Amino acid sequence: MAQPENPPTLNELTHFALSLAELAAPMAMRWFRQEMDVESKADLSPVTAADRAIETAIRERITRSWPDHGIFGEEHGQENLNRKHVWVIDPIDGTRSFITGMPTFGTLIAHLIGGHPVVGVISMPATGERWLGVRGRPTLFDGTPCRSSGRRLAEARLYATSPDIFDEAGRAAFERVSARVLMRRFGGDCYSYGLLAAGHVDAVVEMGLQPYDYMALVPVVEGAGGVITDWQGRPLSLSSSGHVLATANPALHEEILPLLSD
Amino acid sequence: MAQPENPPTLNELTHFALSLAELAAPMAMRWFRQEMDVESKADLSPVTAADRAIETAIRERITRSWPDHGIFGEEHGQENLNRKHVWVIDPIDGTRSFITGMPTFGTLIAHLIGGHPVVGVISMPATGERWLGVRGRPTLFDGTPCRSSGRRLAEARLYATSPDIFDEAGRAAFERVSARVLMRRFGGDCYSYGLLAAGHVDAVVEMGLQPYDYMALVPVVEGAGGVITDWQGRPLSLSSSGHVLATANPALHEEILPLLSD
After folding, report:
1. Which of A124, A145, B16, B152 registers the highest number of CB atoms within 10 A of its CB?
2. pLDDT band for position A240 (50/70/90)?
3. What's the rounded mean pLDDT across residues A194-221?
4. B50-71: per-residue pLDDT in tens?
5. Is A80 on the interface with B (CB under 8 A)?
6. A198 has a chain B CB within 8 A of its CB
7. Which residue in A97, A103, A200 is closest to B100 by CB distance?
8. Residues of CATH 3.40.190.80 domain(s) within chain B?
């Protein structure tokens, strides 16, 4: 009779998540700033050969090491999401950055236990930077603990990846927040959330995100002292709406949340 | 009787421009991602201590080496713009990027002879990248000649720093261009123009720029095979309107120009 496998420890999962980021980085850089075919998916977001090749390599490594774990990736879909352990991965977050030579794209790796993200990695192959979030532990930015800011609304630096991610109501909500902050800037993808964890950005307001866009962000933001929820203040899950509010601290979250549902 | 100084050669001016970029880079990095006071100018663009200190250092070096040259800087204004030789400098282009920890800010150095930009440097202190444009020579990206793309409108990747830089008519013009390209992305400042020279971005459409924002871009874009003008197709000068259209090639310029004045 087969022995049941020992459940993986949080340390094992963390090291494995980091190894996936390390697998992805040189692959991403092999394609970065090279001529490539850019296709258009139905949603018009560009998909690159790099995206698919990286996800294939990551999935193979997961399946070899943890055959009973579920996987949810951007390019190759969902497998066994009903399992206790699930990996959620975005090989290249920020494909528009990637194909225009901007170094602000990243690889996102999340591990969920019972649907809750317990490990998150934001890896930036072009800059070599990396954020690691593990539930209950301080977030590490390039190996050093980092803290998000204590700034309040009037002094906040707000980010969204693009005004084009919002529908009409969402854009109105984003404008209400924008009117109250010190400044806003567009263009960031996952990097904005890393910069939030590191204390440089104070709020990110986005919609239309998929689980592979936001799951890895949760342990990173929370472990730095920030808050990340949907626009109703609920924890992010695999079935969230894709509306995401990340703030550098709980007080700022309380200031912004009502502006989103006005 | 004082001897008239020998006029500087193009090589001397080029080396001097690069030395100014090298002076600025470590200063910028000393302030980057550090806590700092952010002030608000009348136009609400944030100004940092780094901005001012770098420009002061650059101006001192110019005045020491070339006392008869004019200087136009973002922070400390204009001196002797009627001289044959004029330096136009932006110590930190992309201050919103800078103060939010984004590595996509740059230092811009231009040298004008008789009002025409003959040397341009885009220096990215946080990524270590540098573009050098010298009139009549191929643009160098990190020391290697680079070429802008041959892409046409339907396959173009379009950039603007932010939708917030446009007035209503300008925004409408930008939307007309956006509707015809493969994709658009916001958030770039001077880096977008460097990426255009390197073949990754195909068009940048902006307005509200100042001479210190665009003068250094001209030799960089032109030396890579691109075109950079105002929205009427006229060469950029110190008295331009601040509307800038940069394209990767002349054919793309001809496609976009009529969309801007529709």
Report:
1. A124
2. very high
3. 98
4. 888 999 999 999 999 999 999 9
5. no
6. yes
7. A200
8. 153-260
% residues pLDDT > 70 (chain A)? 93
Q: Do β-strands B39-40 and B203-206 pair in parallel, antiparallel, or remain unpaired?
A: unpaired
Instruction: Give me the residues of B, 203-262, that contact A with CB < 8 A.
Output: none
Cβ partners under 8 Å of residue B175, min gap 6: none
Q: Do B195 and A101 touch (CB under 8 A)?
A: yes
- Cα dist from A159 to A56, A212, A245, B96, B112, whole Å: 31, 19, 10, 11, 36
Task: Please state, as a whole number, how many other Cβ atoms lie within 10 Å of the Cβ of residue B160.
Answer: 27
- Supply the DSSP string of A112-125, one letter for each residue: EETTEEEEEEEEET
Question: Per the confidence metrics, is the pTM higher than 0.90?
Answer: yes
Q: Does B123 touch chain A (CB under 8 A)?
A: no
Distance from CA of B83 to the nearest CA of A (A): 38
pLDDT tens-place string over residues B25-49: 999 998 898 875 555 444 434 457 8
Domain A10-145 has CATH 3.40.640.10: no
CATH topology of domain B153-260: D-Maltodextrin-Binding Protein; domain 2 (3.40.190)
Taking phi over 0 as left and psi of -120 to 50 as alpha, with beta for the rest, B199 belongs to left
Q: How do residues B146-165 score in pLDDT, each as one tens digit?
A: 999 999 999 999 999 999 99
Instruction: Answer whether B102 sits within 8 Å of A185, measured CB to CB.
Output: yes
Where along chain A do the CATH 3.30.540.10 domains lie? 10-145
